[in-house]
Every structure is written in structure tokens, then in C-alpha cells.
Amino acid sequence: MINFTNVSFQYTEERDCLKNIDLTINDGEVVLVCGPSGCGKSTLVRCVNGLIPHYYQGRMTGSVTVGETDVSKTTLRKLSRHVGTVFQNPRSQFFNVDTTSELAFGCENFGIDPGDIEQRINAVVNRHDLGKLMDRSIFKLSGGEKQKIACASIAVEPIDTVILDEPSANLDYAGICELRKMIEAWKEEHKTILIAEHRISYLFPYLTRALLMNSGEIVKEFKAEEIRSLSEEELHRLGLRAEELQDPADISIDMEEGKTNDNKMVLSNMKYSYKGEQPVFDIPQMELPKGEIIGITGTNGAGKSTFLRCLCGLERSCKAVLKVDNEVWNNKMRRRNIYMVMQDVNHQLFTDSVLDEVMISQRTEDREEALEILDSLDLKEYADKHPLSLSGGQKQRVAVASAIASGRNIILFDEPTSGLDYSHMLQVSELLKKLRDNGKTVIMVTHDIELIKNACTVVIPFASLKK
Questions:
Q1: From 18, 122, 217, 259, which residue has the greatest number of CB atoms within 10 Å?
Q2: ω into residue 289 within 30 of 0, thus cis?
């Protein structure tokens, strides 16, 4: 059982993040915590796994207990024997350089017999078809593959409480189906599961109830049948994602009626392989329509992110060329003319304030323009905050703001709405449309069905590029 008794928490030099939370979660429940980005979902679950107050600094009042254990009076080491967490950014929770060792790590720390650890790993790998991810370098996995390994490492451990923070953010359709199987297995084992999530429909069969948060408070509680009965429109009014689980490969987007786009960019000799491995892709030549919003879909680990890095010239060993308006761009020219927002935006946040982060991307610094861009993404109030102090969804929007401020004519996005709620997904969608209206070409890798339907003018399955 998890108990919150009049819990409030304020990060150091920040406004209140949790306010007077009274909550009981019974053993074996599957509870969804939902609400807009920055509402306090991640803060709430950090109070259960002990990161608050043992890691994140701030002022906490009230108490949180897991079973008979007072979280504030128990070390993280002892608490980890009962509570396992899959973080929003799985990269931050890995302790090993290969996947098999990562699955074994938690059990090894518990002092479990090596033979039993091997049996536990094999059971999880076989049940969830993870064999192709075993004995792999963590550094060579895609974001979605890392998420799968993070979930599997928790499944291997003999714990009774599971915390999931945006677990589907980087997963493809097949990955979400596997995540559902894991949640189903944990529920059958009578584990208590607490999930902070924006994409919620895939969870409906397993929920016992849902908590809607806003501004650090639980503003509404739904029984499972109540939230399942809400229409798409009602979920959207609450700021929640409503799309049904669907394979993006099944979505086709037709060009606007009566419109053809004969203005093409031509990509030639795009070939890339990791050292000592088979080529990720080999594309002799392909055409990309200029001035469109192009969505690239495909499975985790297929090479979509690598394709974007090669396209913008970041992978220097890939010597492809891109012909744009009769100009041929080599790697150096592509790096100069193409801007990319990475899947893990922590890699490209460099400055001490959100405003500076946007201004550093401008060709000529323009404070007023930067503030207008931030305002369009509901970020103006965070202008003086350090980018890394923001929530995952807020950091994602800062990276999008920087891309807009760059003024580049070709902008690449790798999962631009990962971790974003419905309203901010719509904001990003509208900004992408404005970029297109201003003559920009947008190419994005995404698993986000709602973003594809709202913004894309062209959809290209990645598998078709590799042929």
C-alpha cells in the first residue's frame, strides 16, 4: 500500500510542485496519473521511489509510506528492494554498457543466486520476445529499444511496486503492445503499478482508477469505467491524449486535393553502417518534396534517427549529397543549412537560461523575437530558468523553440512530441504548419499518431527508404 498524508513539495527556488496530496493506493492497483506537462506527475512518483527527498533538493512536508516503510526515513538502497522505476529518460538509469548485464544488475545488487538471475532473465526475454536485444551495447540502441530494456530490467527484479514515468514516450506500436503485456504480467503478479503518462488509451484494460493533476494538485479522480467511457472530445477537454493504439504504418496521408509538389530535393548515395556491422540503410537516390511536413514512421531500431543524423551531416562518415534548388550540399553544407532537434534534447541544451537557449540559435540575437517564440509554446514564464531544471515535456518545447529561432529552411525533428500533453502537441503541430507556410521543409521521425494526423502532409514508411 502507498500512502500520501498531506504531502507538499517545493523544489529549491521553485514554486510549489505538490500541494496537500492525500492519497492511498492499495496493493495490486494499477493507477494512472495524468495531466498537462509540468503538472506534477513526475514529482508525485518521485515521492514514492524515494528520489524525493533523498536526491532532489527542496522543502517537503507530510509523509509518504510504501507498505510499512516511511520513504523519507529509508535509504534509496533499501527502498529499491520494494520499488522499481522506469524513468522518462531511460538512459539516465543504466549502470552497464551491455543489455544483458543491465537486466542482471538489480538482482545482483539484491544478492540473488546467479542461477536464479539467469532463469529470471530468460523468462522475461522469452515472454516479451527480447532476444534480439540481448548482448547488445547500450550505446547502440535506439531510444525505444532503451525503453524496452529499462522495462525489462524492472520485470526481472523481485519487487512489488512498479513506477512508470512516460513509459510509451519513445515506443513504436509493437513496443507499446509489449509494454501492455508487461503491465498485464505485473498485474497478474499482484504488483502495485503507478503510471505517469500522456498517452492513456493503451492502458484502459488494466486501470483500476486514474488521477488527473493540475498545478501540483489532484483535481479529479476517475474510476476505471469512468475514464474508459469518456469520449475523445471529453478527454481532449481535460488536456489528455485520446488516440487509439494504432500502427502508424497503417496511416496514409494524401497531398491536399488538387495540389502537386514538383519541387523536389534529391538525396543521393546515402549509405551508413556502424563499425563492423551491416549497413543500416543504403539509398542510391530518393526524392523528398520541398516545403512539406514529412513524417517518417517505422519500428524502433530500424535506423530512423541515424537517417536524420546522416541527412543533416552529423555522421561525418556518411558522404551523401543533397541537391536543393540546383545546389549540391555535401556534409558541411548540410550542417550549415539544416537544423535538427534530437530525440534526447538533453544533448543540445547548453546555456544557463531558456531565453539564452533560444537566442543562441538565432543568426542575429533578437530578444523580443525569442520571447515571442517562447510565448507561442507557453514557455515565456520559464525564460530565466535553467533548461535542465524543466520537466521532460518543457525541455522538448525549448528545443522546438530553438529550431524555430534558427531560421533554417530545412528542420529535422526526432520525436518532437515525446512527453508532450495534448494541448502542447497541438501547439507544436500548429508551429510546424506555420514553418511550412513560411516555406520551410519539415522532416520528422515520429510514432505519434495524433501529430501525424494533425500536421503531416506526407508520410513515408522508413522501410521503403531502405529498399
A1: 18
A2: no
User: How do 83-86 and 161-165 pair as beta strands?
Assistant: parallel
Q: How confident is the model at residue 257 (pLDDT cuts 50, 70, 90)?
A: very low
Residue type, 278: Q
199 within 8 A of 166, measured Cβ to Cβ? no
**Cell numbers at 277, concatenated:** 556491422
CA dihedral 457→37→66→103, nearest 10 degrees, is 40
**Residue for grid cell 503518462:** 197
* pLDDT tens column, 93-114: 899 999 999 999 999 999 999 9
Q: Does domain 250-466 have CATH number 3.30.70.1350?
A: no
Cite the DSSP H helix spans in 41-172: 41-49, 51-54, 76-79, 99-109, 114-127, 143-156
Name the CATH code of domain 2-237 (choices 3.90.420.10, 3.40.50.12780, 1.10.287.470, 3.40.50.300): 3.40.50.300
The H-or-E segment that residue 151 falls in is helix 143-156
> The whole model's pTM is what?
0.82
Tens digits of residue pLDDT in 11-68 = 886 666 899 999 999 999 999 999 988 889 999 999 999 999 999 989 999 999 999 9
Side-by-side strand order, sheet with 30-34: 83-86, 161-165, 192-196, 30-34, 209-214, 217-223
Q: Which residue matches cell numbers 549497413? A: 279
